[in-house]
Amino acid sequence: MDKKRINGIITKFNEASVLVIGDLMLDEFVWGKVTRISPEAPVPVVDVTSITFSPGGAGNVVNNIRVLGGKVYPVGVIGEDGTAQKLIAELKKKGIDVDGIVVDSERPTTLKSRVIAHSQQILRIDREQRGEIHEWTVKQMLSYIKMLLPEIKAVVISDYGKGVISPRLLEELIPLCRKNSLPIIVDPKVNHSLHYKGISVITPNHHEAGELIHQKITDEETLLLAGQKILSELESEAVLITRGEDGMSLFEKDGSITHIPTVAKEVYDVTGAGDTVVSVLSLSLACGAKMKDASILANFAAGIVVEKVGTAVVTASELKERVSGAYE
Length: 328
Description:
Blueprint: H1 3-11, E1 17-22, E2 24-37, E3 44-57, H2 58-67, E4 71-78, H3 82-93, E5 101-103, E6 110-117, E7 120-127, H4 135-148, E8 154-158, H5 167-179, E9 184-187, E10 201-202, H6 206-212, H7 220-234, E11 238-242, E12 248-252, E13 257-260, H8 273-286, H9 291-305, H10 316-326
Parallel strand pairs: 1-4, 1-8, 2-6, 4-5, 8-9, 9-10, 10-11
Antiparallel strand pairs: 2-3, 6-7, 11-12, 12-13
Helix pairs in contact: 1-10, 2-8, 6-7, 8-9, 9-10
């Protein structure tokens, strides 16, 4: 592994432009302290000290790419509500173009509220609608993507199963990207697996990979079976299975398999780690990196983000520092 080459990829992030299509959400964090149990029920009473908001779901991928220095174009659907206004404000604050975000007044914007006390998440409340989006919304998104094609170097499909990523969308989007030689990086939902055929790389965690082959991954044998089977069924260039504290395993269509050990020092919160992986993977591939180098970089980034609490992001300088420390 060449430190100079890896750092060279990070340096090029600010030349990359990535389109992210998927389920946009707003993450709300209610921060507080617990000093007593409620007299009404055996639950902690949280004294709120602050409330913060950040883009969630596909929005967290967008945020990660922007913080790493890349140019990013989000495509998705929001409602006509206060949550949407907060989400758009958060994105604009970060200098992110929001022209690809379609408003559907019949659909609420997904809001995930997390209550955190003493650095521990104690409750999550989800407000959302999961049905498939309207045909007119699909057409609007595809029309925007076609217009933007000359500007972008990679496409991320961030599928949280809330309805934006549908078979109808994928049957037009994937051939469009392939025709324009754009890498397609997918953070998957298992029930759409058959429709991802022809993508560049898919990034399931080990539970999702097991679901994709209808068999639990319990050892190296089942891990190898999962990687090879998914690769074959999706006719993709690669499969990157994220395995928590066991790192990642990369399966490529030339038959090579690379096991990448974790680099996290301490795991505080895995929220959004998968988003960080696809963000770094997409930026690296947009810069022309090989799949193996892109995966190693993504692993470094995931190792940093799980050491932070909440939907965290990684900066290019943090990534360079961690890479440098590993290859001293």
